[in-house]
Amino acid sequence: MTFIITWAWAINIAKGNIMRLAGKTAIVTGGGAGMGEAVAKAYGRAGANVVVVDVNAANGEATVDAIRTAGGAATFVRADVANTADVTTMAQTAVDTYGDIDILYNNAAVQLHFQDARAHELSEEIWDRTYGINIRGVWLCCKYVIPSMLRRGGGTIINVASPTGLFGLAPTYTAYSSSKGAVFALTRVMAVDYAADKIRVNALVPGATETPLTEELFADQATRQSLLDATPLGRLGQAEDVVGLALFLACDDSAYCTGGIYTVDGGLTAV
Fold first, then answer.
1. Residue 213: predicted pLDDT
2. Which of 55, 59, 75 has the alpha carbon at shortest distance from 67?
3. What is the rounded distance in angstroms from the CA atom of residue 229 to the CA atom of residue 237?
4. Domain spans of the chain?
5. What angle do helix axes 124-131 and 174-193 make, rounded to 10 degrees?
6. What is the pLDDT of residues 93-108, one digit of tens each?
7. CB within 8 A of 73, min separation 6: which ones?
8. Active site residues
9. 3-state secondary structure of 106
10. Which CATH superfamily is domain 19-265 in?
11. Is the pTM of this model over 0.90?
């Protein structure tokens, strides 16, 4: 028997990635930029069929093109995760294109710099927008993807949280921090609710990471330096830093892991 493989697939095999998610279907929200983009590409390299979800069509399509160019399979769905119609379309597109869903990576979020504020100074608009995407969006994606996982006989959900949801690391970011705290609670109650259904639910917690979401914040050198000083490893995170953990939680290597909180923060929360 003769096998013909492309150079991209050969590289993936050499890296040990190709079989970890082979044959699985993964949805990555916020997959057009930053950590979501890095994870979507990694899932593609690992053999998954990747459904890239983003509100920015140009960015999402670029991620899909990169996955396909590397020899993987990917489809783009434009969706606002806070919108029920968009999320149902997302889930149905994944099922129609690739079959039932194995992995949901809930990454889409907003952090409204210089608009979030202390509780009495915070506008209802900023509160509602932050909660709409950061927690309603996570819940909606779970709500409409889980039925596919139940049919499939299991799956894994990875909710991207934040250290600010556990510790007072972000003064004045009332809406963002509390919405990320809600992600932890949702993760844990779902982990228990769906354990018997073989659906694992975990939280991945990046630290101070350089992405388009934080670009405006880190442009302030005082803020940047304070975060560097607070991080024992002495540098800010990069989008690729979350990939190893995102792969671990998505694949069978983490078969006994559910309800967990997994940090990738350079030691930020260790001190």
1. 77
2. 75
3. 13
4. 19-265
5. 30
6. 999 999 999 999 999 9
7. 44, 48, 49, 50, 67, 98
8. 176
9. strand
10. NAD(P)-binding Rossmann-like Domain (3.40.50.720)
11. yes
Contacts of 190 (CB under 8 A, 6+ apart): 142, 157, 199, 201
What is the distance between the alpha carbons of residues 242 and 250, in angstroms, rounded to a whole number?
12
First-to-last alpha carbon distance for the chain, in angstroms, is 56
Amino acid at 131: Y
Per-residue pLDDT tens for 125-168? 999 999 999 999 999 999 999 999 999 999 999 999 999 999 99
Q: What is the pLDDT of residues 195-230, one digit of tens each?
A: 999 999 999 999 999 988 788 888 889 889 988 999
- Give dist(CA 15, CA 202) in Å, integer: 25
Strands, sheet with 73-78, edge to edge from the N-terminal-most edge strand: 73-78, 49-54, 25-29, 103-106, 155-160, 199-206, 261-264
The residue type found at 204 is: L
pLDDT at 51 over 50: yes
